[in-house]
Amino acid sequence: MSRALFSSGPMDHLAMLPAVDMSTSIGVFQTPAPVFTASGCAAAGKELDQFFDITQLGGIVTKSVMLAPRSGRATPRMAETPSGMLNSIGLQGPGIDSFIEHDLAWLRQRGARIVVSIAGSSVDEYSKLAAKLRSVEGVSAIEVNISCPNVEERGQVFACDPVAASNVIQAVRRNSDLKTPIIAKLSPDVTNIVTIASAVERAGADALAVINTTLGMVIDLDTMRPALGGITGGLSGPAIRPIAVRCVWQIHQALPNLPILGMGGIRNGQDALQFILAGASAVSVGTVTFHDPSAPLRVQQELELALAERGFTALRDAIGYGHRSPDLPEIHEELE
Amino acid sequence: MPPLQLTGQVLDVRRAGMYTVLSLTAPGLAERTRPGHFLNIGIGGEESALLLRRAFAIYQVQSRGVYGGSVDIVIGVHGQGTRWLAERRRHDNLSIVGPLGRPFTLPKNPANCILIGGGYGTAPLFMLADQLRERGCRVDVIAGAATEEKLFGTLEIKRAASTLTVTTDDGSMGTQGRVTDVLDDVITRSAADVIYACGPMGMLSAVAAVAAARGVYAQCSVEEAMACGIGVCMTCVMPVIGDDGITRMLRSCVDGPVFRGDQVRWSEVGTIPPDTLGAPTGGH
């Protein structure tokens, strides 16, 4: 489908390779392309549209929005770390009403596929957010960010407790259109991520977003105090990629029919392919967008090339391919 | 016009006091650049472990020439990333995104303007001075730094200014003291209508206070730590009062870096003032 993307430059040799069907699905949400932005790394798409055509991506996952406008945390909000960064933004945002009126309206008018990410500090807030989105057109899926700090659980995270996570997903499911897939965004900061994944699936999640940032900290040696205003922050970027691939692998092994939107430090097409082989049906490019604003589309093009080079004619055939049985020794003998 | 993302080749690296001036090929950038714009540069190549781009005020641009356009930036070495940049050599390639941000606003009619640069905060003022003079504005410049070696381009900017006043904290050049110690006099002498300032937050805060006291309109270009520079990461925010009187946490990369001096809540930068839109309500 995206042959036109490879019209010039180093990709020319792809013309020698067969076309790859890049379509995929997240529950009932069918998309012609498998690469998405990651919530919190793309705002609501408008800024990135200056650098590439956002409608060519699988979809735009918007920054997690809450019910009311929110100022976020005090600065400093970020610290660079080896192959990554820490952030403690604190979910700054305009609130759902302004988001629907301005950001969502723009994305819809632009023709992008839209995944709205929501965050709440209570089950009730998630319910209200889902209800608000129910009447809004053009939402392909809802990402439920349950991996953010909340008030009810006293600084804990919904996604760290199977019961709390299930309660949120159930509430969102009850309040949203059945035709809109619900994607639960999980935290890697748990003892057994499969337990959480199974719980949210039973609660009605149609898919998972794996993974959110992992909690970290940096001390500033000039001030000899925490570098971030929020003291701790979420670690993202290529530094966490192996953790993310492991989480995707474990969940896909246990729940092979549950679609996964894989993410965590994806920098190029090869990185994206690791997630697909581990069991992700689609991927998100997040922090690397700060390094290269056109990264999401570039990764999508490179992923197509990486699949073609390995003989795949459809992305779907590669999903979970890393889990196949060991190759039989006879095959190697035949080849020799 | 949207910003460009391009690969620029290093044309020239030269030392200027304690700073490094880097000239890069950048076709198309000059035509889009206005005084006060910035650009950012990727550090360490494609597989770098330093993910975050470094932001620099645009110092000079050339739209023509054998390279089809080029851009100059001034680098002060503060850490690993800027050190790597200062070590680049001719023909090295660098990833450039720009021009970025909201530039200085120029007066429609001739006005008396004071340009204030702290350290290498003078960098974006050269282009500004030229364009103001083209519009028939009077330009007076104040350049301040801790020491003489931390000043940038004082000889060069003199050519574009009616007067140049230099201050250093240690008195190694010009008047001993801060830019605000001489600002009052320069406002009086030049009958200033507008102040343009670029430099450290402390200086901008002090300049904005003098400007407010004297009733002079001030535009300040801020330095805030940024991760993306294009408006998506929300790390570079500051409390800024809008025209509607409401304080919001605005992104200095896309809503700035130039803000009105009387709209930034300078003493509260680094905090969320309690009356900010969406500020945490009592208890946490």
Jot down its keywords.
heterodimer; A: 336 residues; TIM Barrel; eight-stranded parallel beta sheet; 16 strands; globular; B: 284 residues; alpha/beta; Elongation Factor Tu (Ef-tu), domain 3; Rossmann fold; 2 domains; seven-stranded mixed beta sheet
What does this structure look like?
- The complex is a heterodimer of chains A (336) and B (284).
- With 336 residues, chain A is an alpha/beta fold.
- Chain A has one domain: Aldolase class I (TIM Barrel).
- Chain A is built from 10 helices and 16 strands.
- In chain A, strands 3-16-15-10-9-8-7-4 form an 8-stranded parallel β-sheet. Chain A has a 4-stranded antiparallel β-sheet with strand order 5-6-14-11, with no helix packed on it.
- In chain A, strand 9 (182-186), helix 4 and strand 10 form a beta-alpha-beta unit.
- The longest helix of chain A is centred in the first third of the chain and has 15 residues, at 96-110.
- The radius of gyration of chain A is 20 Å and the shape is globular.
- The two termini of chain A are 37 Å apart.
- In chain A, 58% of the residues are buried.
- Mean pLDDT of chain A is 92; it is low at 1-9.
- With 284 residues, chain B is an alpha/beta fold.
- Chain B folds into 2 domains: 4-100, Elongation Factor Tu (Ef-tu), domain 3; 104-221, Nucleotide-binding domain of ferredoxin-NADP reductase (FNR) module (Rossmann fold, 3-Layer(aba) Sandwich).
- In chain B, 18% of the residues lie in helices and 33% in strands.
- Chain B has 6 helices and 15 strands.
- In chain B, a hairpin with a 2-residue loop joins strand 1 and strand 2 (19-25).
- In chain B, helix 5 (179-190) packs parallel to helix 6.
- Chain B is globular, with a radius of gyration of 19 Å.
- The model of chain B has no long low-confidence stretch (mean pLDDT 95).
- The chains are: A alpha/beta (336), B alpha/beta (284).
- Chain A binds chain B through residues 40-43, 47-48, 50-51, 63, 68-78, 80, 82-85, 87, 89, 92-93, 95, 151, 229, 237-238, 287-294, and chain B through 2-3, 5, 42, 48-53, 95, 97, 224-225, 227-228, 230-238, 248-249, 254, 269-272, 276-280, 284.
